[in-house]
Design a protein that fits this description.
single chain, 208 residues, alpha/beta, TIM Barrel, six-stranded parallel β-sheet, three-stranded parallel β-sheet, 10 helices, binds 3-phosphoglyceric acid, schiff base, EC 4.1.2.14, 2-dehydro-3-deoxy-phosphogluconate aldolase, lyase
Length: 208
């Protein structure tokens, strides 16, 4: 896997994962993989996130582990050092963009408007995270930009559910979607990884 576009092809749903207890990282990744999901965006939103990425990178080689919620240059480097195979940002500043390029990792920069998407395309980035998808126009937005921006492919994320996922996945400019519903906070807190596996299995079927 070498480009952002390749990332969009790994699974129909890219789980957006928040790990509060570092010991949950490996069982969560294994449950997602057992359900048929081959990629994780593990968000840098908790103090244990980098350690969690490191554990998954080492112990679950079958899943492609990326760092999400990268909002600073320092985080981009830290995530790469921890073993992340790709980076995801919710939006994009020049500083974060340069730091992400410097890691040499593929990354999905966030864009919520046509101008943001055009700026990223100017830098050669044609696989983008469309965030926050539902709040920014959802399926209608993506349909509208397909004409003027035909080279761009998106991973819409933010407010998408198992019920709304198929409408996104049916769009030609959507490679995969992102969502946190595969790893509910409650299930992780209860160490209920069977539920994660079953939600992953349903999500994996969305691409069929
Ligand atoms: C993200 O960072 O991509 C979002 O928090 C995920 O959005 P969701 O929780 O609505 O799926």
């Amino acid at each position: 896997m070498t480009t952002g576009t390749d990332l969009l092809e790994l699974s129909p749903v890219m789980p957006v994962v928040v790990i509060d207890d570092v010991d949950d990282a490996v069982p969560t990744a294994r449950a997602l993989l057992a359900g048929g999901i081959r990629v994780i965006e593990l968000t840098l939103r908790t103090p244990v996130a980098l350690a969690a990425i490191e554990r998954v990178a080492t112990e679950v080689p079958g899943i492609v582990i990326g760092a999400g919620t990268v909002t600073s240059a320092g985080q981009a480097k830290q995530a790469a050092d921890a073993g992340a195979k790709f980076l995801v940002t919710p939006g994009c500043t020049d500083t974060v963009l340069e730091a992400a390029f410097a890691t040499g990792l593929p990354f999905l920069p966030g864009a919520g408007t046509v101008s943001e998407a055009m700026r990223l395309a100017e830098r050669g980035l044609t696989a983008l995270k469309f965030f926050p998808a539902e709040a920014s126009g959802g399926v209608d937005y993506l349909k509208s930009v397909a004409g003027p921006l035909p080279s761009l492919r998106f991973c819409p994320t933010g407010g998408i559910t198992a019920a709304t996922a198929p409408a996104y996945l049916a769009l030609p400019n959507v490679g995969c979607i992102g969502g946190s519903w595969l790893t509910p906070k409650k299930s992780l807190a209860a160490k209920d990884f069977a539920t994660v596996e079953s939600l992953a299995a349903e999500a994996a079927k969305l691409g069929a």
